[in-house]
Write a structure and sequence with these properties.
Blueprint (H helix, E strand, L loop, with lengths): L6 H8 L19 E6 L14 H7 L7 E3 L5 E3 L19 E5 L14 H12 L14 E8 L2 E6 L20 H4 L11 H5 L7 E7 L3 E6 L13 E6 L3 H9 L6 E2 L6 H8 L4 E16 L10 H4 L12 H9 L3 H8 L4 E3 L22 H10 L12 E2 L2 E2 L1 E7 L2 H16 L3 E7 L1 H4 L17 E6 L7 H5 L24 H11 L4 H15 L6 E14 L2 E2 L17 E2 L3
Parallel strand pairs: 1-9, 1-10, 15-16, 15-17
Antiparallel strand pairs: 2-3, 4-6, 5-6, 7-8, 8-9, 10-18, 11-17, 11-18, 12-18, 13-14, 19-20
Helix pairs in contact: 6-7, 9-11, 15-16
Length: about 575
């Protein structure tokens, strides 16, 4: 087997690419005062292992970091280690069952203590604990053990050959947490550790000075940060809340903020804001997909939480494939894209539209077919027996509660989809929830996307890096959010297919890139066109904005958007 034809070979060609951190503005750390960042979906927690929300993962990435991450080109680079392990440099075993990371000597936590292999080992124990729930559990799929070999060496052993061993500790979704701080937070105790979850000690460029959940984070430059003279900013004010339009205006029109995330706005609205001359919008395509999730379980409030979280009680009508397919057929994705995103969107039928290697030749859904959707429902026995305009069968009405987060574009999508669904005889009730709550991961809230107490929900999701193995592993049987996992888990719709799991295992053991692409496309099709468990709508570009006075910003669609905040600086007049 030649390495250049394998995933590991591809990594070997990019992993050691030098990082260019110089911004041309050297000087004292903290020299540029305060920088103001606005995420209109406010962070609720600063522990990415207890939230799958992008807002929480990315805000935490300013503080806690992984061993390696991805650049704006998708290249994997060392972050807290000297080099990315490969077979060629001896870091990955010849039989592909182990990967050994060598931590850079001299790294400090923000409290001044040493960063060691024990912190890495503990992070794995924390996420893999059988009595806990980890929002990033798929990153550890197939991990047998994690061993602290010595103070600066960590060895991960897999259950079998793992041509892609870069799930654990790679990318902003899988950072290292401090063992000393989280020692008493294992398993079911994890959500109870408020101080640690709200004020994590980290290795990143900033440290928390105050965190008000769903409101504002005040951060200060980490005096123990490993890069001399960085960050340039002495502090960061990270404001949450509001809406996308307000966030765009705050940077592009008024200049009140320096950076605004996720401008989920119509393109003409953004262009009009830019005319004020205060800032610029930035955009880049990656694998971010706006989609509908179909609930395969019965969300009835009359059932106990344990039942509502598993397929033990199937959904009364969404368990019918023909109903799910009809709902998809009724949607005009071209119109949704035009209305919501313009050139910053592409209609898609795929959960994984990028990289191209994993983009399935699946275009059937791109043509709206209302008549075909009606015929399919007729064929399945769903008819309007009482003439009220709503189809029914065996006493069950096709009546959908369709929820999403509060956002102008998403509410436009809801209105259009509701109209199309009602044209085919499906009654649709719309519900929108504050994004800070919907994506917050609070185990006590009934309104999180993980609990999915609705029939259909809509949001966007993506993955770190250019390989979707961990992302696709989210839909493995048993990975559903449930009460005994504190409602953490990535398998939102409670999809379970042993054939899918077997194909995941095959992907995990496959090194040849072309073969990986073939398997990845099959997995994509199994949860989309073959089952319509996930109904993709639009491959969205990431669109954010920064002020004209903020330098060093590099938009990254393959990792945390704030991945290089240490390089930001103030452009002087």
């Amino acid at each position: 087997m030649t390495l250049k034809s394998t995933l590991l070979g591809a990594v070997a060609l990019t992993a050691l690419a030098p990082m260019a951190f110089a911004d041309g503005h050297s000087g004292e750390r903290g020299r540029d005062g305060d920088v103001k960042v606005l995420y209109w979906q406010a962070p609720s927690i600063l522990n990415p292992f207890l939230s799958g929300g992008t807002k929480d993962v990315e805000s935490a990435s300013l503080i806690v970091e992984p061993l390696a991450r991805f650049t704006e080109t998708g290249a994997m680079v060392p972050w807290l280690v000297d080099e990315v392990p490969t077979v060629a440099n001896g870091g990955v075993s010849e039989d592909l069952t182990t990967i050994t990371w060598k931590i850079t000597d001299g790294l400090k936590w923000s409290d001044g203590s040493d960063f060691t292999s024990e912190d890495v080992r503990f992070t794995a124990e924390y996420c893999m604990h059988p009595e806990g729930g980890c929002a990033q559990g798929a990153k550890f799929d197939g991990v047998k053990s994690v061993e602290a070999v010595d103070k600066l060496t960590v060895k991960v052993t897999f259950e079998g050959p793992k041509p892609n061993p870069y799930g654990p500790f790679v990318g902003g979704e899988s950072p290292i947490i401090q063992a000393a701080q989280f020692a008493d937070c294992l398993g079911a105790k994890a959500p109870e550790c408020t101080e640690a979850n709200f004020n994590p000690i980290g290795t990143g460029p900033f440290k928390v000075t105050e965190f008000r959940p769903n409101d504002v984070i005040t951060l200060a430059a980490n005096e123990n940060f490993r890069m001399e003279g960085k960050p340039a900013f002495a502090s960061m004010t990270f404001k949450g809340g509001g809406d996308a339009a307000g966030a765009g205006r705050a940077v592009l029109e008024t200049g009140e903020f320096d950076y605004a995330w996720n401008l989920q706005l119509a393109p003409d609205v953004i262009a009009k804001m830019e005319e004020a001359g205060k800032g610029v919008a930035i955009a880049g395509f990656g694998p971010l997909v706006e989609r509908l999730e179909m609930n395969l379980t019965n969300p009835s409030p009359d059932l106990p939480p344990e039942t509502r979280s598993t397929v033990a009680e199937p959904h009364p009508f969404l368990s019918d494939f023909k109903v799910r397919k009809a709902l998809s057929m009724a949607i005009d994705r071209e119109l949704l894209t035009e209305v919501g995103y313009g050139k910053a969107g592409r209609p898609t039928c795929n959960l994984v539209p990028a990289p191209a290697l994993y983009n399935s030749d699946n275009t059937e859904c791109l043509v709206q077919d209302l008549d075909g959707a009606k015929a399919l429902l007729d064929e399945a026995g769903w008819t309007d027996s009482d003439g009220d305009g709503v189809r029914d069968k065996d006493g069950v009405k096709l009546s959908i509660l369709y929820q999403t987060s509060t956002n102008a574009v998403r509410q436009d999508f809801q209105a259009l989809i509701k109209d199309w669904w009602e044209q085919i005889g499906v009654e649709t009730e719309l519900r929108n929830l504050d994004g800070s709550v919907f994506f917050g991961g609070d185990p006590g809230s009934p309104d999180t996307f993980q609990k999915f107490y609705a029939d259909v929900e809509m949001y966007a999701n993506t993955f770190n890096g250019t390989d979707p193995q961990s992302y696709l592993s989210a839909y493995r049987c048993g990975n559903e959010p449930k009460p005994d996992s504190q409602w953490q888990g990535e398998n939102i719709n409670r999809f379970c297919d042993p054939a899918y799991d077997a194909l995941l295992d095959e992907l995990a053991a496959t090194g040849d890139l072309e073969k990986r692409g073939e398997i990845g496309r099959k997995l994509n099709d199994m949860v989309t066109k073959d089952t319509m468990t996930i109904v993709p709508l639009v491959n969205r570009a990431r669109v954010s904005a920064h002020s004209n006075s903020l330098g060093g910003v590099v938009l990254n669609t393959w990792d945390s958007e704030l991945w290089n905040a240490a390089d930001w600086y103030r452009i002087k007049d």
